[in-house]
Amino acid sequence: MPAYLLFVACNAIPFYTDTELRFRAVLLNVQLKVMFKHIQPIAITVAFFFAYVLPTVALFVLGGIGIAERETGTYSATWLSMLLVASYVGCPVAGGYLVARLGKQKSYTHALIVSFIAGISIGLMTEPFSVRSTLMWIAIFSTSGIVGAWIYERFTAKRRTSAF
Fold first, then answer.
1. What's the pLDDT score for residue 6?
2. What is the reported pLDDT for 8?
């Protein structure tokens, strides 16, 4: 590499002084605080627990009962498959609705955060782990969570415009 190109490449990389770095860090901190000012972690935690953790535990328990019934010969996969569909579609909608109701402000942002956390946790529980399946769960849950927040927004808009 010629010395001139090395000189140009080294000068193209910005070097900041300590004061500039501190200013940039403070500016980033202020921007993050403003951006996440209305995010309520307790609403996200409660919605995640009631809309994702409890139904997942119930699904594991009922799935275990279904496997035990399969060994005895009285197994019907219909109710278990309906329960799977309901939990993979209904729970994110319920989670989006619940977090939007608890969060009050920025309901769609709250719904996306809860759905993102749930998608990652479900993606981590699949065997074997794959990034593609995790992204699929995040996409499914985020869409359903946004629908739940939208339902909440529609109900509150109707309540505001009603005569009562």
1. 46
2. 45
**Rounded to the nearest 10 degrees, what angle do helices 131-161 and 91-103 cross at?**
50
Please, what is the angle between helix 91-103 and helix 107-125, to 10°? Answer: 140
At 149-158, the pLDDT tens digits run 999 888 887 6
* 52 touches 121 (CB < 8 A): yes
Those residues of the chain that have pLDDT short of 50 are 1, 3-12
Question: Could you tell me how far CA 49 lies from the centroid of its own chain?
Answer: 12
Number of residues assigned to the chain? 164
Q: Within 2-161, where are the H helices? A: 3-12, 18-35, 41-48, 54-72, 77-85, 91-103, 107-125, 131-161
Spatial neighbors of 40 by CB under 8 A, at least 6 apart, are 102, 103, 104, 110
State how far the Cα of 135 lies from the Cα of 35, in Å rounded to an integer: 24
Q: 109, 39 in Cβ contact below 8 A? A: yes
